[in-house]
Design goal:
mainly alpha
Length: 496
């Protein structure tokens, strides 16, 4: 069966259009699980805290107005809230000094681990994750197994596992933390994220209900509303999700937290195809935190949808200027490809591969991203192999969609339809209104000759977000043009 592919083709090895490429095995690294202190000692952990490189080293806080900075960051990281990168640098420097002087201070180790984690998430520098793990495990070791105050470190390990896309580990740590501190609101969000990643949407909703019943204080409410927004979004309740995040942004207590919520609102606007509203929220976030990576990438996405290609490319390049996120590199590569700038696209794909390799070395599970890349720009059969393993380990909606698309690209449309249907079936948890998911379903149905459902789903994808992908949206329009109008059919004869 001929595989229909989308995108413009370029001279050379790019397989985006035409026949699938020959089987070639990439030497992608598998994820490295970092468990540095599983059998180590606290003294060893102190020795492993090497000095920061000069460009990252935090200066001691100056007397006067800056004295409050570590306190703000301390409150944020111990509550699982966003913190400004400069504040994190100060806090990390202080906590490193503290644990060197007092290696039995479990709380200091836990705070240090949480700060490393937050810096890694914000900067996309996954080299912070092994450091976070060492610090958090040391906090557990100092206090001893079963200590009631271990919940803070266990929350941190659950959040770290989520950041690494290791949802089974996140669930394990999250459930341990919740058992130790069932009335502590910070124990709930990492567990909700873990259940979502595992495709257990019923458990995620139940855990959210328990969280909201706690009546957390005013400082916690923005984070609780943001968690509710994510669950509502996954259920397809877009208006409720946006309302929760809007309230969270209004109630945020720091510029970093408010910028994170505004960025989330921008992403929700983007997902429903509202380019102008998305751009407005991304730019508002950038006014609060200039250089915010996620807001810059979102701004690039919105500008591209508005046809402001030069500005979009500049925004993406700014987002990738520091520690590039491989997902942003992949998006920029596809934007370049849609503009016919094939060498620039290939450079971004190469960057994406390097960054994915570095992330895997830091313990991040990048199988989903690698599978998505291989399906469209590499070896679809390798994508299927990787994503089938990922599905067995953590069967969430994202993996179902990616596996279905990879199977389609590899020529197995019958099995592809099974997974694409799971990703879009509300009864199986696929309530999220996702233009890419519905587009994939429609393209698979088209290949199977199911023209009616294919036409319906491709039209739906473009109604949800007409700009969902610079390559995919164009392919959806081309496929609809080929399918043509709904054919006239004779009315059924009247029964006698």
């Amino acid at each position: 069966m001929k595989i229909r592919q989308y995108g413009r083709s370029a001279p050379g090895p790019s397989p985006v259009a035409g026949q699938p490429p020959p089987r070639r095995r990439r030497r992608w690294p598998r994820r490295v699980l970092v468990t540095a202190l599983a059998g180590g000692t606290v003294a060893g952990a102190v020795l492993m805290l090497r000095p920061e490189p000069p460009h990252r080293r935090a200066l001691p806080p100056a007397p006067g107005p800056q004295a409050h900075v570590p306190a703000q960051a301390l409150t944020a990281v111990t509550s699982g809230l966003p913190a400004a990168l400069p504040d994190l640098a100060v806090l990390i420097g202080q906590q490193e000094s503290r644990v060197r002087a007092r290696p039995q201070d479990a709380q200091a180790w836990a705070v240090l681990g949480a700060a490393y984690l937050e810096r890694g998430r914000q900067s996309a520098d996954t080299a912070n994750y092994p450091k976070a793990e060492r610090a958090l495990r040391t906090a557990l070791q100092v206090r001893g197994e079963g200590h009631p105050q271990n919940a803070v470190a266990l929350d941190g390990l659950a959040s770290l596992a989520n950041a690494r896309r290791d949802f089974p580990e996140a669930k394990r740590y999250g459930e341990q933390a919740l058992k130790l501190a069932p009335k502590q609101w910070t124990a709930y969000p990492p567990l909700i994220d873990a259940y979502t990643g595992l495709g257990d949407y019923k458990a995620a909703r139940s855990t959210l209900d328990k969280l909201t019943a706690l009546h957390a204080g005013a400082a916690a409410r923005p984070a609780v509303m943001a968690e509710a927004s994510a669950v509502y979004r996954d259920r397809g309740w877009r208006e409720d999700a946006a309302a929760q995040l809007t309230d969270a942004a209004a109630a945020a207590r720091t510029p970093a937290e408010q910028a994170a919520r505004l960025t989330g609102i921008g992403q929700l606007s983007w997902e429903r195809g509202d380019r102008e509203d998305a751009l407005r929220h991304f730019e508002a976030a950038l006014r609060l935190v200039p250089g915010g990576r996620a807001a810059l990438a979102g701004r690039g996405r919105a500008l591209a949808a508005l046809g402001r290609d030069g500005e979009a490319l500049a925004a993406y390049r700014a987002a990738l200027a520091g520690q590039p996120d491989p997902r942003d590199a992949l998006e920029l590569g596809e934007l370049y490809e849609s503009l016919g700038m094939f060498p620039s696209a290939q450079a971004q794909y190469d960057l994406m591969k390097r960054r994915a390799e570095e992330a895997a070395a830091g313990g991040v599970d990048e199988e989903l991203l690698i599978g998505q890349f291989e399906a469209d720009h590499g070896d679809p059969r390798e994508a299927v192999e990787r994503l089938e393993e990922e599905w067995l380990r953590q069967p969430g909606i994202e993996v179902a969609d990616a596996l279905g698309w990879a199977l389609h690209r590899a020529g197995d449309d019958t099995q592809a339809l099974e997974y694409a249907s799971k990703a879009t079936d509300k009864t199986k948890g696929g309530g999220v209104r996702s233009a890419p998911y519905v587009f994939h379903l429609g393209m698979i149905e088209r290949e199977l000759g199911e023209d009616g459902p294919a036409r319906r789903h491709l039209e739906e994808a473009l109604r949800i977000n007409p700009y969902f992908s610079p390559l995919g949206a164009s392919a959806a329009r081309s496929a609809l043009h080929e399918l043509g109008e709904v054919p006239d059919e004779p009315l059924p004869a009247e029964l006698p």
